[in-house]
Amino acid sequence: MTATTDINKIISKENLVYGKTSLLLDNEMHYCPGCTHGVIHKVIAEVIDEMGIQDKTIGISPVGCSVLAYNYLDIDWQQAAHGRAPALATATARLMPEKYVFTYQGDGDLASIGCAEIMHACNRGENIVVFFVNNAIYGMTGGQMAPTTLEGQVTATTPYGRDCSTTGYPMRITEILAMLPGTRFVTRQSAETPGAVRKLKKAVRKGFENTREHKGISFIEIVATCSSGWKLSPVKSNEWMKENMFPYYPLGTLKDR
Predict the structure, then answer these.
(1) Quick check: 148 and 123 in contact, CB under 8 A?
(2) 106 - beta bridge partners?
């Protein structure tokens, strides 16, 4: 098989999961090679573009790797304090109910300092979409242990692996939120293969459609990689995620009512 044949196989129709969108700005991304954030940005941008809601969408990013998301998606953005994106989204959605409001948060942000914020926003059933990127580590600040860090996982603050007897257990925050009566749609997806990206895009669209129909809060977790924090190559990061994170954080929809 020639190199040309190999390339043609890779770009075959079934593997072309991305469409064209004008929402992504022509800025060089700051994310590390292999980071899942770039893929998620592309999917969100495509859905907003396809639904024709660019001028009606407001994104809210707090502190973390997602803090510079406004550099890449050509929509209105607001900046929230660490963990406080759901509170800001609540105010925005209530003041402007005709808008499509979403938060874009990492696990260190949402499941740690922002745990109370997301719990109460979900319990109230605010009409927003929450994108929760879970890579089981604090990526931006040096690779420290996060609430979602797996048992035995080595991080900057758990050099011998996470010891649950002293640090507690990895939080399945999505399962917790699914039990709250205020949540409408709760799902856990990934973005490491073309098939996974298609499922994620379907979930993203459903979340925004729920907002349009004022059905309440949609919570979309994306199990992601952090090559720099995990000290692995992009390929090895995907393998590690599948072997270690997927068993503890199984993919699929937990709630859809």
Answers:
(1) no
(2) 133
- CA separation for the pair 88, 65 (Å, rounded): 19
Sign (positive or negative) of CA dihedral 129, 85, 221, 120: negative
Question: Which CATH fold would you assign to the domain 31-256?
Answer: Rossmann fold (3.40.50)
| Tokens (6 digits) for 130 | 């929450």
Lowest mean pLDDT across 3-17, 58-72, 96-110: 3-17
- Per-residue pLDDT tens for 11-21? 555 555 555 67
**Total-model pTM:** 0.91
Give the pair of three-digit tokens for residue 82.
């660490």
The answer to whether residues 143 and 228 touch, using CB atoms and an 8 Å cutoff, is yes
State CA 125 to chain mean position distance.
Answer: 19
Alpha carbon separation from 140 to 73, 82, 120 (Å, rounded): 20, 13, 26
Residue 44 · residue 73 · CB < 8 Å: yes
Return the residue matching tokens 């109910």.
97
Residue 242: beta bridge partners?
A: none
Query: Do β-strands 217-223 and 129-134 pair in parallel, antiparallel, or remain unpaired?
Result: parallel
Residue type, 236: K
Q: First CA to last CA across the chain, in angstroms?
A: 49
Kindly list the domain boundaries of the chain, sorted by start residue. Answer: 31-256
* Confidence tier at 85 by pLDDT (50, 70, 90): very high
Tell me the average pLDDT of the chain.
Answer: 92
